[in-house]
Design brief:
The protein has one domain (about 15-410): Methylamine Dehydrogenase, Chain H (7 Propeller). The protein starts with 13 loop residues before the first strand and ends with a strand. The chain has a 4-stranded antiparallel β-sheet with strand order 3-34-33-32, with no helix packed on it. It has strands at about 15, 20-25, 50-60, 65-70, 70-80, 80-90, 95-100, 125, 130, 135-140, 150-155, 170-175, 175-185, 190-195, 200-205, 215-220, 225-230, 235-240, 245-250, 260-265, 270, 275-285, 290-295, 310, 315-320, 325-330, 335-340, 345-350, 355-360, 365-370, 375-380, 395, 400, 405-410. It is mostly beta strands.
């Protein structure tokens, strides 16, 4: 997650996009599999020499990443005091529809340099677009027309006297249910499942308030679980009922648990700026579950940047030494390679069939070959946009970027 934010079944559609035709769906936080991985069909055969703007749409500020579905780009942004939802034609940059809704709030006095969000990335499924605003306004929109279908307002659960960034967990679709996590440092939090068609609540869990991480859906021993971070723990819930299966402490003095949990098939990986990166195994005895820590790496700590997993290796950005790129053995926590540092305060990390992409907040894109033995630089680009804290979308040789105030499609040359 950026500071901001489950496997999901999607159907690709063929889109004419200038010089290439690509089956492109990027419908939620971290893409189709919620794992930061780009389909091979959507990655370039060779990386271009440079990128130039093809179109740009001013949408307002925010840390919510753009999503793509059905030939449209959907963006959740803000022009204070309103939040804005915009649908844009992917090929031309033409605005198809735009909706606004009130989202007035005052920032925590210690976080006034950070924007007011929104922070959570939207989700598109079944012709519906789901957004979760910084004040915890959950809305379902008709994706083709922008019609508001249903809405839940959880703003009474969000107390910003201590919470730095407002609601940040990106919505998740798991087992046909829409999962959201809301709340704050004061008064606790809620994880709830809704019928995506009607908004009817199917189950809820109440406990500690959220961190800023987005939940994920995993399957262990045939049981589908929702795993996420609260502001003081790592938590696993039964995806069908919301029953708490297990919990382990993961305290942070500023409640900044931000990184999305990653399941390797054998280990659950979590990370935090003051807790380092940790690997847990999940076991069941009868109806009792237990999470056991198997390793901990205190040096490769990740703050706002969620890593990607490939070939048993985690590729991410440690926040130490002003940010360094690092590759970690997911089974042991051992460092495979790392850079010297000063890469940036944040990087959103994207995985392709043969490369790892790091997009830093200064709009520098570093393309690294997936080499477990060394840092193998392929390309580095200055994308020329303003500051960006959101995840890019790879569209063949093109990139879709949300910068400080706009969405831009960059054409690879």
């Amino acid at each position: 997650m950026t500071r901001s934010a489950a496997a999901i079944v999607v159907t690709g559609v063929l889109l004419g996009i200038g010089h290439s035709v690509v089956a492109q769906e990027w419908p939620q936080w971290r893409g189709p599999g919620r794992d930061g991985a780009v389909l091979a069909a959507n990655t370039p055969a060779a990386w271009p020499e440079s990128f130039t703007p093809q179109w740009r749409v001013e949408t307002g500020e925010g840390y919510s990443s753009p999503v793509v579905s059905g030939g449209r780009v959907f963006v959740h942004s803000r022009r204070d005091p309103q939040e804005i939802v915009t649908a844009i034609d992917l090929a031309s940059g033409k605005v198809i529809w735009q909706q606004t809704q009130a989202a007035t709030y005052e920032k925590n006095q210690y976080a006034v340099r950070m924007g007011k969000g929104p922070n959570a990335t939207p989700l598109v499924s079944g012709g519906r677009l789901f957004t979760l605003g910084a004040t915890a306004l959950l809305t379902a929109w008709d994706a083709p027309t922008g019609k508001r279908l249903w809405q839940h307002d959880f703003s009474n659960m969000v107390n910003l006297s201590k919470l730095f960034c407002g609601t940040a967990a990106s919505p998740l679709l798991a087992g046909g249910l829409l999962i959201v996590q809301v709340g704050s440092d004061v008064g606790g939090g809620m994880i709830a499942a809704f019928d995506p068609a009607t908004g009817a609540k199917r189950w809820e869990w109440k406990g500690a308030g959220p961190g800023y991480a987005s939940p994920n859906a995993i399957e262990v021993a045939g049981v589908r679980q929702i795993v996420t971070l609260t502001n003081q723990s790592v938590l696993g819930l039964d995806a069908g009922t919301g029953r708490e299966l297990w919990s382990v402490p993961f305290p942070d003095e500023w409640h900044e648990n931000i990184v999305t949990p990653i399941w390797t098939g054998t280990h659950l990986i979590v990370s935090g700026t003051r807790q380092g990166t940790q690997g847990y195994t999940l076991t069941r005895t009868g109806t009792t579950w237990q999470a056991r820590q198997q390793w901990k790496n205190t040096q490769a700590s990740m703050y706002t940047s969620t890593p990607v997993l490939a070939d048993g290796v985690l590729y991410g950005l440690s926040d130490k030494r002003k940010g360094y790129f690092v590759a970690i053995d997911a089974a042991t926590g051992a460092v495979k390679w790392q850079t010297e540092g000063r890469e940036g305060a944040n990087a959103t990390v994207v995985l392709t069939a043969s490369h790892v992409l790091y997009l830093t907040e200064s709009a520098d894109l570093t393309v690294v070959r997936r080499d477990t033995g060394r840092f193998a630089l392929e390309r580095k680009y200055d994308l020329g946009t303003s500051e960006t804290w959101t995840m890019p979308v790879v569209i063949g040789r093109d990139l879709l970027i949300k910068d400080a105030t706009s969405v831009v499609r960059l054409a690879g040359r």
